[in-house]
Fold:
Amino acid sequence: MRIAPRVGLHAIVDGREYPLERAQGGGWEIWTPATAEAPPTGWGRSGSVFARPVTATDVGGVIRIDYEGEYRGVPVQLSPNFAGGFELWSSHVEDAVRVGLTQTEATRVHDAVAADDPDLVYRQTREPVPFPTAPAA
Structure:
């Protein structure tokens, strides 16, 4: 199962794309899943990921990834989940509930669907952006 890239900033370092996150204490770092006992040289363990500090000179480019789509004709915002599917949110509450999504707040619905659900139509957008100079919002 291949999990789609998460929403947010990603950095290209050494020809590979990594999530780019604000480091605790300042600066920026890239993440990769902690799939081995010891992190690769230059990386440290941070919870369930290996993290490596980076600066603008380390990075070959930065992109912002986002998704937009529809579920059974209802506009949704979506983000990949660790199960290989997508988390869906919609502010079109009445329509979203009518097509089977779960209402979680008075003005919002939230649900999860498989990435290959035939009722989900989505598009990933990848926008080149400058290396961030301000803290992540």
Observations:
- The chain has a mean pLDDT of 89.
